[in-house]
Design goal:
Blueprint lengths: L1 H20 L3 E10 L2 E9 L5 E7 L6 E7 L4 H16 L6 H29 L3 E7 L2 E3 L1 E6 L4 E5 L5 E12 L2 E11 L3 E6 L2 E5 L5 E5 L3 E2 L3 H4 L5 E4 L6 E4 H4 E5 L13 E5 L5 E5 L8 E7 L12 E10 L5 E2 L7 E3 L3 E8 L9 E2 L2 E6 L2 E9 H6 L1 E16 L4 E18 L2 E3 L5 E3 L4 E21 L2 E14 L10 E4 L2 H7 L7 E14 L2 E12 L2 E15 L9
Parallel strand pairs: 25-29, 27-34
Antiparallel strand pairs: 1-2, 2-3, 3-4, 5-17, 5-19, 6-9, 7-8, 7-16, 9-10, 9-18, 10-13, 10-14, 11-12, 13-15, 15-16, 20-21, 20-37, 21-24, 22-23, 23-28, 24-28, 26-27, 28-29, 29-32, 30-31, 32-33, 33-35, 35-36, 36-37
Helix pairs in contact: 2-3
C-alpha cells in the first residue's frame, strides 16, 4: 500500500513537472478546407502577447505538421507566416496561382476568427490591473561639487543639469521595488570640479547607469506618495543622484476589500518614447502557495509524519519599508514587513495514523485506575492538521552575500488524532485489553520564534536554513470527555518511573532547498530534525520531497 502511494506521488510529480515545463493554453482548436482536403489548426497561448499556431494534415501518411508564433495583431505578418508554414511543412509542393490565392484568403478568415476568440479569452481571464506606472524621459540630477569659496564639498540639488532617459528596468518582488536600473545620458557635456583642482568631464552621449541602494516599498498609498529614494550613478567617478519620484509616478487602481495595491512579481522594461506601463495583480491561480510533500521517513509503519502532506499559505505585506543598516549602503533592514497565514494537512493517505495513547495502570480498591499521557515530542510528531500564521519581526538584507536573515514569530492550532485500546480489569483481577478501540482528537497550541537564513544564489535555485523553538501546550478542554490525558516530557521515563517531568519545549532545525522548473512549478527538498529541549534523544526526523504548482491553472502539453 505504502509503496503504491509513493510510486503514485513520484510519478504524478514528474508528470506535472514535465507538463508545466511545456504548458500552453489551447484557446482555439478547429478545421479548415482547402482544395477539397481537411486540415486542423490549433491556437495556443504562450504568454501575454504571443501565440503559437499549429497546422496539421492528419489524413496523409505520415501525418504532417508545422507551427509558427504570432502576436495576432497584424494580418499581413500572420498571412505570410501561415502561407510559408503551409507551403514548406504541409503541402507536397508549394502552392502557386489560384491555389496560392485560396490559401491566402483562408489565412485571412482564420486570422480574424482566432483573433476574436483570443480577445474574448483575454477578457474572461484578464488579470486585475494593479495600476499604471508613468516614466519621464527627461529629468534633472543632483551632484556633489567642490566649493572654492568654502573649500569643501557641497551637494547641489534642483540643478539645471538634465539627463535623457534611455531605458528603465524595474524588478517588482514581494511588494517591493527590489531593483531599479536606469540607463541615461547627459543632454550636454557635463564638467565640474569634484575636488580641489580636480576636474571631471562627462561628454554628451556617455552612458550613465543609476541604481537603487536598497528595496523600496511598493504596496500602499503612503509608499506611492513618498518615493523620494535616491538612485546613484555607477559608471563614473562622479557622485550623481536623482530621486525616484522625479522619474516615475504611479496611479494605483482601488479595488474592493483590499488595502494592498502592489503589482505581481515581474521585471518590466520601459524604453522612451513609451512612458506608461500597465501593471497587473497576481493571477488568481497564484494567490495561494500550495506545496504537496511526500515524507520518506513517513513510509515506515511506526512513523506518523505522514506519507503525503499538503501545505497552503498566503503571504500578506504589512510594513513595506526598508532602511539603511548603520549608515551602510550595502545592508538594509526592515520590521513587520509581512505576515503569513496558512494550514497544513499532514496525513492525506488512506491509512491515516493515530497516536496509540499509553497509560500507567494501577489497581486501587479492586478498581482499575488509568493515567493516560502523551509526550511533548509525540504532540509534535503526530500532528495531523495545523492552522496558524507567522509575523515578521525583523529582517536584515545582505545583497552582496545574496542572502537575507529573518526573525519571525508564529503560532499554530494543531489537531492530534488518538486511539485508545481501553484496558479493563477482568474477572481474575488482571489488567487486560477490552478489544474495543476508542478514537478521538485533541488540540494543541503551539508558539515559536524562528530565525531563517535565506540564500538567493540564482533565480532557479534557493536554499534556506531555519531554526525554531516550539512551545507546545495540550488543550485539556479538547477531545473526548472520557479521555483525560496529561502532557509529559518523556514517554519512556514516565512509563518506567511514573514521575512527570515538565518540558513543553521542542527545537527544530530545517534545511529547505528549492528548484524552479518553470514560472508555476517548483521542486522542494526539505530535511527537518526535531528534538526535545533538555533531552536530544527525544527526537524525530523528516525527509521530504515537495512540489508546488498552480492548482487552478488548466494546461495542455505539446
Amino acid at each position: 500500500m505504502k509503496r503504491k502511494s509513493l510510486k503514485f506521488f513520484v510519478s504524478t510529480v514528474l508528470m506535472v513537472s514535465i507538463s508545466c515545463g511545456y504548458a500552453q493554453d489551447v484557446i482555439y482548436n478547429g478545421k479548415f478546407d482547402l482544395s477539397g482536403k481537411n486540415y486542423t489548426i490549433e491556437l495556443r497561448k504562450i504568454n501575454t502577447n504571443n501565440y503559437e499556431i499549429i497546422v496539421e494534415d492528419k489524413i496523409s501518411t505520415p501525418n504532417k505538421s508545422g507551427s509558427f508564433t504570432t502576436t495576432l495583431d497584424v494580418l499581413n505578418l500572420f498571412s505570410n507566416d501561415f502561407v510559408n508554414t503551409f507551403n514548406t511543412k504541409i503541402a507536397p509542393v508549394p502552392l502557386i496561382g489560384a491555389a496560392l490565392t485560396n490559401l491566402q484568403s483562408k489565412s485571412s478568415e482564420l486570422f480574424f476568427s482566432m483573433q476574436v476568440v483570443a480577445r474574448m479569452m483575454e477578457d474572461v481571464t484578464l488579470d486585475p490591473v494593479a495600476g499604471k506606472i508613468n516614466v519621464k524621459d527627461r529629468i534633472s540630477v543632483d551632484y556633489y561639487y567642490f566649493d572654492k569659496a568654502d573649500k569643501k564639498s557641497k551637494f547641489e540639488t534642483s540643478s539645471n543639469k538634465f539627463i535623457k532617459i534611455k531605458s528603465v528596468q524595474i524588478q517588482f518582488e514581494n511588494s517591493f521595488i527590489e531593483n531599479v536600473k536606469v540607463l541615461a545620458e547627459f543632454e550636454q557635456d557635463f564638467e565640474i570640479e569634484r575636488y580641489e583642482n580636480v576636474k571631471i568631464k562627462i561628454e554628451k552621449g556617455e552612458e550613465l547607469k543609476f541604481e537603487n541602494f536598497y528595496p523600496i516599498g511598493f504596496s500602499s498609498k503612503s509608499n506611492y506618495s513618498n518615493l523620494d529614494y535616491y538612485l546613484k550613478e555607477k559608471n563614473t567617478q562622479l557622485d550623481i543622484y536623482f530621486k525616484l519620484d522625479k522619474l516615475i509616478s504611479y496611479n494605483q487602481n482601488h479595488r474592493l476589500r483590499t488595502r494592498d495595491y502592489s503589482p505581481r512579481d515581474e521585471v518590466i522594461v520601459i524604453i522612451p518614447p513609451v512612458k506608461d506601463y500597465e501593471l497587473k495583480k497576481e493571477t488568481s491561480s497564484k494567490v495561494l502557495d500550495v506545496v504537496v510533500y511526500s515524507d520518506f521517513v513517513g513510509l515506515k509503519a511506526d512513523k506518523p509524519n505522514g506519507l503525503i502532506q499538503m501545505e497552503v499559505s498566503k503571504e500578506i505585506p504589512i510594513h513595506s519599508r526598508r532602511y539603511p543598516f548603520i549608515n551602510t549602503r550595502s545592508l538594509n533592514w526592515g520590521f513587520l514587513n509581512y505576515s503569513k497565514i496558512g494550514f497544513t494537512i499532514v496525513n492525506i493517505q488512506e491509512d491515516k495514523r493515530r497516536y496509540e495513547v499509553p497509560s500507567l495502570n494501577e489497581v486501587i480498591n479492586n478498581e482499575l485506575v488509568r493515567t493516560r499521557f502523551i509526550s511533548t515530542k509525540d504532540l509534535k510528531n503526530f500532528n495531523s492538521l495545523s492552522i496558524g500564521g507567522d509575523l515578521n519581526l525583523f529582517l536584515l538584507d545582505i545583497p552582496d552575500a545574496k542572502s537575507t536573515i529573518f526573525i519571525d514569530g508564529g503560532f499554530r492550532f494543531n489537531v492530534v488524532a488518538l486511539s485508545d485500546s481501553l484496558d479493563i480489569l477482568n474477572t481474575a483481577g488482571e489488567i487486560a485489553k477490552s478489544g474495543v478501540i476508542h478514537e478521538s482528537e485533541v488540540s494543541v497550541w503551539e508558539y515559536y520564534p524562528e530565525i531563517k537564513l535565506q540564500f538567493f544564489p540564482e533565480e532557479r535555485f534557493g536554499i534556506n536554513f531555519i531554526y525554531r523553538q516550539h512551545y507546545l501546550r495540550l488543550n485539556k478542554e479538547s477531545g473526548d470527555l472520557n479521555m483525560d490525558i496529561i502532557q509529559v516530557a518523556e514517554r519512556d521515563n514516565f512509563t518506567n518511573t511514573g514521575i512527570r517531568k515538565e518540558s513543553n519545549w521542542m527545537r527544530s532545525f530545517e534545511i529547505n532547498a528549492n528548484l524552479e522548473l518553470s514560472s508555476n512549478s517548483v521542486f522542494f527538498l526539505r530535511f527537518r530534525t526535531n528534538s526535545l529541549v533538555g533531552n536530544s534523544n527525544e527526537e524525530f526526523n523528516q525527509w521530504q520531497l515537495g512540489y508546488s504548482f498552480d492548482l487552478l491553472k488548466t494546461t495542455k502539453t505539446k
